[in-house]
Design goal:
Largest sheet: 7 strands, mixed
Oligomer: single chain
Structural class: alpha+beta
Strand content: 5-15%
InterPro entries: Bact_solute-bd_prot1 (IPR050490), SBP (IPR006059)
Helix content: 40-55%
Keywords: Signal, Transport
Number of strands: 7
Main location: other
Number of helices: 18
Pfam family, one: SBP_bac_8
Distance between the termini: 31 Å
Organism: Occultella glacieicola
Length: 393
């Protein structure tokens, strides 16, 4: 059961390939995403008609496991001598729970990068960012300087577009030396810490002070249109775009400009955020052995080759890096995908983060619009968010 496994998707093809080589039949149930999927999944899990395998939002793994809905995969990992060193740690270790259980298994990852309009950089005489993640330079100051020189007046071209993407909630604070949105134990709302609020204010000021970023109203209106940000970038109206690697397939198909991918600018450090396609086995799966066999296939070499063809989703085995070699289409820095994953962090998750988001995300609009400073806006809700994280909200 998944929200994106229709017959024209790679995940569906992988499922059918597994069934063929396993001499099994597989019924792929694809349910619309968003709230519809979560509602349907919970209904199915409570009905007794459990699927063998489910796709699960990475945000919710801990909550589903804590309520007893997910099978601990540790015995299967040990039985088949699965070596953690064969997988990117940011993915393999993600599903480990406080009691040692391995509650799910990511099969694909999707780290954040900076998309750059190479034509615009050349036209403006601005050096491109480094292609090596560990290279010196490419700081926040460098980013602002580039965005200023890349911007054309009257909205003809903005230097950067960042706050359309929730990835920045982790990327910019973490690179300013914080733990991101929450503390490692997900009990403290560290997005309200000084290092995080300084980072978000820096982003907001790209529009409010420097005029190199679309204003809040433009972004709010645009976000309601699918692929709005990617379209602005692909048509040359934005020179630098924060986005996940999942945007690569769209841009390879639709971009009208010469483009490439680069690391985010560094401040205290240079890291990025990682999101994942996660599969899990319900605790009452009718056939957990077959489910485990399917999961193993999804992280194996045959599936990895199929998944890597999109160029936007990275299989979790470290050996998949060899599949990300540049071809005759952008991006030429395709190896940056693997570098990003090696330097990615996961959001610190807790049982109540979905509720916490309903409180803090609307407040971010106060920051982007300039109605409140980041320090005032986020400091004003810290106590409420932390009460929710403690299970009291």
């Amino acid at each position: 059961m998944s929200w994106d496994a229709t017959s024209d998707t790679t995940l569906y093809q992988v499922a059918q390939n597994w069934a063929e080589q396993a001499s099994r039949e597989i019924d792929v149930q694809s349910v619309p995403g968003g709230g519809d999927y979560e509602t349907k999944l919970r209904t199915v899990l409570s009905s007794g008609a459990h699927p063998d395998v489910i796709r699960i939002n990475d945000d919710f793994v801990q909550a589903y496991y804590s309520e007893g809905s997910l099978l601990d995969l540790t015995p299967y990992l040990e039985q088949d001598s699965i070596d953690a060193d064969d997988f990117y740690p940011v993915a393999f270790n993600f599903a480990k729970q406080a009691d040692g259980a391995h509650a799910a298994w990511p099969i694909l990852t999707n780290p954040g990068v900076i998309y750059c309009n190479v034509d615009a950089f050349e036209e403006a005489g601005v050096p491109l960012p480094p292609t090596d993640w560990d290279a010196d330079g490419w700081t926040w100051d460098d980013f602002l300087d580039a965005a200023t020189k890349l911007t054309k007046p009257g909205g003809e071209r903005w230097g950067a577009l960042l706050f359309h993407d929730t990835a920045l909630e982790t990327v910019w604070p973490v690179n300013n030396g914080t733990t991101g949105i929450y503390s490692e134990d997900a009990q403290s709302f560290t997005l309200a810490d000084e290092g995080s609020t300084d980072a978000l204010q820096w982003v907001a000021d790209l529009a409010l002070v420097h005029g190199v970023h679309p204003d809040f109203g433009t972004v709010s209106t645009g976000k309601s249109t699918p692929n709005w940000a990617q379209s602005l970038f692909g048509t040359g109206q934005v020179a630098m775009l924060l986005g996940l690697t999942s945007s690569i397939p769209y841009l390879r198909e639709n971009a009208e400009v010469n483009w490439d991918i680069f690391p985010p600018p560094q401040q205290a450090t240079r890291q990025t955020v990682n999101t994942m396609t996660v599969l899990a086995v319900p605790s009452e799966s009718p056939d957990p052995d077959a489910a485990w066999d399917f999961l193993k296939y999804c992280v194996g070499p045959e599936a990895a080759e199929l998944f890597a063809e999109s160029r936007g989703f990275v299989p979790v085995a470290t050996s998949s890096a060899e599949l990300f070699v540049a071809d005759d289409q952008a991006p030429q820095n395709l190896g940056m995908v693997s570098q990003a994953l090696a330097n990615a962090v996961n959001e610190n998750f807790g049982l109540y983060i979905e509720r916490a988001r309903t409180v803090y995300r609307p407040v971010l609009d106060e920051i982007w619009s300039g109605r409140q400073t980041a320090a005032d806006a986020l400091g004003g809700i810290r106590a409420e968010v932390e009460a929710i994280l403690a299970g009291q909200g």
